[in-house]
């Protein structure tokens, strides 16, 4: 859709077609997207330090499409350097981040940064700034806020808890270490957790968002879903507008995604489709699969009741023993210590489980699955949610 002629005060989202991860095609697409919002010079001045924040959820190769593709990272590094600025790259993975070098190597970021002489920063070791927002305390990695410019570089993915993971959710990785999973304890419901994500986003608001939408992920993202060809690079200075317009094009009302709704209500960006100026064409994407988001079904229930209801109605995580390698990443990722180390596979203590799905998100073998009980199956058959 091309809506040229829209009012200048609208948020602008600039879309470019990109059908492969060859560096030449990606860089052309990134440059074209940036041209639509004034070019890199509108965001970066010579001598600026620029923190690139990709999605580095797990130590996984680019070929499984969980992390931002290194070709997109390299293209943005080249563009930032051409503008006379100094790029650096950092992110904190979703679970225990022992041996950050392994994450950098496997995701392809180390290779790109070596070739382009770009600094990799380890958020787990670089200190924090502490903030209060909405009565909660947050610790943000220092390099994020010390940089002159933050460029947010997510991948388009679904999310089992918050439905969508892109520009707003990607900023959650500025929280170092397992503090990220600790926040799940405070927020068993998706909307509660989305408030925390939006708090972090507001404290570390990116100046520019460049989205890897060449191959995204649908189904049970952000790590256990399926690669989905979308074929775009997207740029905007408004993360809320980007996420909202992408949800809209992928068949989801942006207001059904709690991070969009809450960020919009807090005045952090535009989520109203008619108020977003879209440049470029978004391709037709067949049968994009959204996650079930079972936790969303009890949004109407007070948080203190939600845990009890989960036992009666909710689906719950379980482990496929044929896939489990007993690596214990799920044990270390669980914010409520609801998973115990056992052989041949860990076991769940469901009375402590808050259904945050971190274990499913972090399992490197896709061994954790959504085990629905019969009540859930019965109700979902009539509600059409399954
Ligand atoms: S379920 Fe996954 S994360 Fe947990 S021990 Fe097995 S392989 Fe590791
Ligand atoms: S067992 Fe899994 S879903 Fe339950 S609280 Fe722990 S990480 Fe979250």
Summarize the structure.
Pfam families: DUF362, Fer4. By secondary structure, the protein is an alpha/beta fold.
Any key phrases for this structure?
single chain, 386 residues, alpha/beta, Rossmann fold, Alpha-Beta Plaits, 2 domains, 10-stranded mixed sheet, two-stranded antiparallel ribbon, disordered N terminus, disordered C terminus, binds iron/sulfur cluster, 4 iron, 4 sulfur cluster binding, iron, Thylakoid-associated protein sll1697, 4Fe4S_Fe_S_CS
What do these coordinates show?
This protein has helices spanning 23-35, 70-82, 100-107, 109-115, 142-146, 167-170, 179-186, 190-203, 239-249, 258-265, 303-313, 329-333, 358-362, 374-383; strands spanning 11-17, 49-54, 86-90, 119-121, 128-133, 136-141, 149-153, 155-159, 163-165, 208-218, 226-236, 276-279, 316-319, 339-340, 347-348, 368-371. The longest helix is centred in the middle third of the chain and has 14 residues, at 190-203. Helix 1 (23-35) crosses helix 2 (70-82) and helix 8 packs across helix 10. By secondary structure, the protein is α/β, with parallel strands linked by helices. The protein folds into two domains: 11-279, LarA, N-terminal domain (Rossmann fold, 3-Layer(aba) Sandwich); 294-383, 2-Layer Sandwich (Alpha-Beta Plaits), CATH 3.30.70. The chain starts with 10 loop residues before the first strand and ends with a helix. Helices cover 32% and strands 22% of the residues. Strands 1, 2, 3, 4, 7, 8, 9, 10, 11 and 12 form a ten-stranded mixed β-sheet that branches. It has a two-stranded antiparallel ribbon with strand order 5-6. It binds iron/sulfur cluster (SF4) (2 copies). Residues 317, 333-334, 336, 338-339, 348, 353-359 line the site of one iron/sulfur cluster.
């Amino acid at each position: 859709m091309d809506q040229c002629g829209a009012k200048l005060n609208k948020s602008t989202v600039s879309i470019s077609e990109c059908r492969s991860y060859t560096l030449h095609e990606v860089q052309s697409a990134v440059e074209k997207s940036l041209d639509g919002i004034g070019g890199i010079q509108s965001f970066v001045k010579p001598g600026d330090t620029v923190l690139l924040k990709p999605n580095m959820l797990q130590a996984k190769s680019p070929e499984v499409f969980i992390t931002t593709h290194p070709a997109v990272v390299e293209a943005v590094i080249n563009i930032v350097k051409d503008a006379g600025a100094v790029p650096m790259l950092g992110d904190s993975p979703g679970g225990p981040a022992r041996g950050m070098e392994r994450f950098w190597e496997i995701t392809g970021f180390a290779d790109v940064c070596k070739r382009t002489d770009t600094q990799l920063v380890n958020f787990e070791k670089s200190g924090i700034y502490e903030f209060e927002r909405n009565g909660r305390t947050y610790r943000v990695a220092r390099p994020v806020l010390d940089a002159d410019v933050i460029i947010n570089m997510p991948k388009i993915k679904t999310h089992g808890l918050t439905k969508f993971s892109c520009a707003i959710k990607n900023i959650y990785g500025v929280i170092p270490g397992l503090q990220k999973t600790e926040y799940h304890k405070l927020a068993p419901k998706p909307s509660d957790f989305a408030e925390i994500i939006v708090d972090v986003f507001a404290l570390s608001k990116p100046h520019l968002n460049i989205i890897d939408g060449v191959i995204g992920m649908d189904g049970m993202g952000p790590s256990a879903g399926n690669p989905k060809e979308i074929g775009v690079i997207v740029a905007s200075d408004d993360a809320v507008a980007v996420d909202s317009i992408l949800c809209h094009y992928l068949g989801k009302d942006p207001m059904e995604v709690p991070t969009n709704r809450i960020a919009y209500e807090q005045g952090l960006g535009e989520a109203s489709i008619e108020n977003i100026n879209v440049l470029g064409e978004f391709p037709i994407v067949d049968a994009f699969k959204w996650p079930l988001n079972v936790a969303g079904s009890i949004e109407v229930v007070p948080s203190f009741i939600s845990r009890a209801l989960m036992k009666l109605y909710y689906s719950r995580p379980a482990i496929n023993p044929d896939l489990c390698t007993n690596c214990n990443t799920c044990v270390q990722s669980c914010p409520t210590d609801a998973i115990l180390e056992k052989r041949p596979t860990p076991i769940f203590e469901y009375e402590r489980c808050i259904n945050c799905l971190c274990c499913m998100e972090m399992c490197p073998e896709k061994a954790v699955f959504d085990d629905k009980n019969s009540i859930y199956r019965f109700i979902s058959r009539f509600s059409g949610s399954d």
